[in-house]
Here is the input.
Amino acid sequence: MRSTMQDAQLTIREITRHGTTVHRDSEVVTATEDGTRSLSYGELGVRVAQLAGALRGLGVEGDQRVATFMWNNAEHLTAYLAVPSMGAVLHTLNIRLPADQLVYIANHAEDKVVLVDASLVGLLVPHLAAMETVEHVVVAGPEAAGADLAPLQGQGAEVHRYDELLDAQPETFDWPEIDERDAAAMCYTSGTTGNPKGVVYSHRSAYLHSMAIWSGTVAALDAHSRVLPIVPQFHANAWGLVYAALMSGASLCMPDRWLQAEPLCRFMAASRATVSGAVPTVWNDVLGHLERHPEQKPESLGLILCGGSAVPLALQQALWRKHGIEVRQAWGMTETSPVASAGRPPLGVEEGTDEAWRYRGTQGRLLCGVEGRIVGDDGSVLADDGDAVGELEVRGPWVTAEYYRSDDPQAAEKFHDGWLRTGDVGKLDALGYITLTDRSKDVIKSGGEWISSVDLENALMAHDDVVEAAVVAIPDEKWDERPLATVVVREGADVTVEQLREFLAADFAKWQLPDAWAFVDQVPRTSVGKFDKKVIRKQYAAGEVELQ
Ligand code: ADP
Here is the structure.
């Protein structure tokens, strides 16, 4: 029997319509150099229609790609809503990618238009001529009016100012019918080996994922919430927080380019953010800043979503105990929209107990919509008993089934009987909690046994004198690989390697302890703010790491 239900399509156009009408009184606040600027969601709806009109006027038709090269701000939000709603495909370019990758993905996606923040024009200029399909560049933001556009001229694309284009458009747009399975947006993985690979989200996958994000399990949003996505809109769609905000009516607080701890804390207070999301390195910086300036504590902030790499328990405990801010760990990948698991400890485990903290140290619980399993080296499915260790595989309506037009012969190996192989190694328990011990490419194999770099890092970062720690495998003649610990020590502390080894010895077997140590000023970071272990391994191989 077929249902009697209406067959309404789950589209970003619907999210936009709902957010900008029913929640017309919510707002998007964007940080400026010396304050904030705001737009109500009602006003945003007008800008969305005008941007769609302007893009149509530039010749954007069908599923053509419109790229963004922007910080998190009101104009980027407008593009997030307008581009998919008009049937085109939003392609968020990571402004921190190396030049060759940036040009590769713009050409691979065949971007027709690039929207760029005035403050980022200088960064785009050197690459524009090589972006073969780009016909128009639109310069946005408050500084666009006075910006010198000459450097963009003569590079094969027409150059426009965003506000001038939009102001000339009617306040409504004739939105097309959209099939929910059509492409809405695309993101490229950062491509640690080979070229970056494209993931294409559908309207339906974005819609379903966003429903999960604003649920109580993840960001717990409603119209009284104020969401601050620090995670860039060019990194895995800002973890779905943008669409989740429009769905729930939560206001958005956009930090633009002011991402250092001090202006962030100021903006959190000024915008009265209640929920925020960013990778652990950001919160580590914020915590350090608040230690020096406790008076700048953002009083409204109650919940932090954290992920992208393992979230040290010490960081979670410090934010909770010193500032009353709950950190909720989430796990996911560009390929999974990105959030696939998140959450608090299960029923029956009292908050604040050791057991509860153990759960908070996990990558969270699988969300409804995502199935997970652990697979052994031989491809067999292992038990979800919280014990068996293998590669995590996932599947579900917001998990990618393939890569976009990939020419990488290894791309097919990322899938296994309809499941995505995540490249993450860990275990799964019967309640759906994931505990990751490593990424497969970061695993340390010493004398045939695995040593978890994540566990060692977590333990080291619990030491009072350690600000950051990254542990990588280095080659060893006898054991194949041994752990190297690179540690950032708190300013003024004079902790020794011996003391750190002793500190670790309480929780690790002797053979698991790092025997190479380096004290560094900062752990190298990737374009999205994660520890860049590839760079550490390279530095070590080149003899550039000064061992203690
Ligand atoms: P990349 O880091 O490769 O540029 P993604 O941003 O898609 O691309 O990162 C996905 C990866 O980030 C996951 O496969 C996993 O290794 C790591 N990751 C994400 N969240 C967590 C977490 N909570 N704990 C540990 N690792 C995480």
User: Anything to note?
Assistant: The CA atoms of residues 94 and 235 lie 7 Å apart. The domain at 12-327 is CATH 3.40.50.12780 (Rossmann fold). The chain has two domains: 12-327, 444-541. The chain has a mean pLDDT of 95.
